[in-house]
Amino acid sequence: MTIACGRFDPHARDGEALALHGDWAWLACVRGQAAIAGTLFGMQDATGDGLLQGVAALPDGRYAMVACDAGEGRLVLARDPAGSVGLFWHRDRNGCIHFATRLDLLVARCQTAPVLSDSGLHEYLRFLDIAAPNTIYEGIHALAAGCAMRFDAQGGHAAPPPATAADAPPDYGAACDAVETSLSAAIARRLDGSPAPGCFLSGGIDSALLCALARHSGFPVKAFTVGFDTPSLDESATAAQVARHLGVEHHIVRPDIEALESSFHRAHAQAEQPYCDPAGMPTRLAFEACMQHADRVLDGTGAEALAGEMPARWRRLAHDWIAPWPPALRRAGASLLHALPGLGGYARMFDFDAPQDLFIRWQGFTPNDIESLTGRAPDLSVTNFHRQYEALRDASHLMRQSVLQGLALPDDRLQQAALATGLRVEQPFGDPAVAALLRALPADWCWRPERPKRLLRDLLARHVPEDIWNTPKRGFNIDLIRVLRHRECRLVRRYLGDAADIERLPLDVIEVARWRDRFLAGDDAAAHRVWALLNLSAWLAQRASAASALAGDTLPRLQ
């Protein structure tokens, strides 16, 4: 992974304005209002917004990019469409912009240790993730994948570039051909020059299609699968059949519960900022095993958001018909159903605070819970998730589910595993040409009630017989409750077990203990919330240890 940082002073001129450290993939440094890297940016513009407009269509590749107009005191930061390289920024008290491809690197370069952000903490507690532009630190921001940011003496201006446009093919057959050609080209660009290419093969359609197309294009890919002891989560048998049919070397990583628990510290406590994807642990183990055999690996992330995923019928009904009810009436309906024998399962159609809650990937703490934990009512309107929901008010359920459970939430498990291991992960579905083509297709070409991911399924069937892989999708996940209860809740007791652990958290100690004790007493419904507290405690403990080892700095505190 590229690790680089820099500083920009909008008040300085010429060579003193920009200082860079590390290996930046692309750097265009110009004076005056001339075009910046015309072939790269795709347009020339002598207006005041030329820098910003120039990144309307970022090219494919792996990069974090900086462009500086020293004569005008302007800077542009941009990140590749697939988000392969992170990019974070901070404006200091003198107006200088500091930026880095790693969050911890930027934090270390701050003039004073940054405090924890109220809004970042609230977002973490609600969604169990923090999405760009927010981070866990006050005053430090993340750039979203495929976006650009312009800075000058007056401030910063975001520029989320419009999606690259594409024309839909004339018919469904032509669309299948076009997507296969585009996706194969994206794979070829990403594996070009790789002496040992690999592919994560989960057993699902997206990863199997990438593996099949890579093999069809002549790349000697090796497939890597994580198998699970829990039968309802294990898809390794399907993956093995796909690999056998394609004739690719196949490696199965089968961690037991001890291995998952032991990977927690590497996967979560040492992350750039806290995140709660339970798949972070098996992902880290997969990366560690894969790097012994491959120098880069294909991953199917992004396919569901592009091809479309329909929310469950109960979610659609709840969103369209029950969400407009007054909250008190919804709560009454949920209470009534909970009390009626055999109908408790329907209570989820009524048991939510706001309609967007129906599309959250993992249900963290409610706003009332967050207020009890932090002493402040959260303003979630500033989160990327809420902004995306507002932008999708008139969209289809297919688009709403795909964006809110895909693009609007981060996938930190892959980024953190890649940063830690150095294994290069490639995501061909993030290729701008592939994404533009899939977005241009009519919805029924991509999804039908009886055939979700219709087009991707039909493409995979060209290379692997459908009876091999057409099994119920289990998702890449672990039995989180089993991990948390392993060895008398050893992981929970390690990070939330005593007063010092709980006092480390910038939260109400009584509330934290109450949630912990609920879970320890057998309440599995509290598992994800305790998981969030456990992750935060472990992450803060790691930060404290690192700070003490470096310079005796104090732990970043809540403002």
Shape: globular
Mean pLDDT: 86
Any idea how many domains? Answer: 4
Major sheet: size, sense and barrel closure?
5 strands, antiparallel
**Name of the CATH first level of the largest domain:** Alpha Beta
- Rg, please? 24 Å
Structural class: alpha/beta
Low-confidence stretches: 26-56, 550-559
Number of strands: 15
- Percent range of helical residues: 40-55%
Through-space gap between termini: 32 Å
Taken as a percent bin, the fraction of beta residues is: 5-15%
What does this structure look like?
The protein is of the alpha/beta class. It has four domains: 4-159, no CATH class; 172-301 and 411-469, HUPs (Rossmann fold); 313-405, no CATH class; 480-550, no CATH class. The protein contains 25 helices and 15 strands. The strands form three sheets. A five-stranded antiparallel beta sheet has the order 2-1-7-6-8. β6 (88-91) and β7 (97-100) form a beta hairpin. The model is unreliable at 26-56 and 550-559 (pLDDT under 50).
Put the structure in a nutshell:
The chain is of the alpha/beta class. It has 25 helices and 15 strands.
List the helices and strands and how they pair.
Layout: E1 4-8, E2 18-22, E3 26-30, H1 38-41, H2 50-53, E4 64-69, E5 74-79, E6 88-91, E7 97-100, H3 103-108, H4 118-127, E8 140-142, E9 148-152, E10 155-159, H5 172-191, E11 197-200, H6 205-216, E12 222-226, H7 236-246, E13 249-253, H8 257-262, H9 264-269, H10 280-290, E14 296-298, H11 303-307, H12 313-322, H13 327-339, H14 367-374, H15 384-391, H16 397-407, H17 412-421, E15 424-426, H18 432-440, H19 443-446, H20 454-461, H21 466-469, H22 480-496, H23 499-503, H24 509-520, H25 527-550
Parallel strand pairs: 3-4, 11-12, 11-14, 12-13, 14-15
Antiparallel strand pairs: 1-2, 1-7, 4-5, 5-9, 6-7, 6-8, 9-10
Helix pairs in contact: 5-18, 5-20, 6-7, 6-20, 10-17, 22-24, 22-25, 24-25
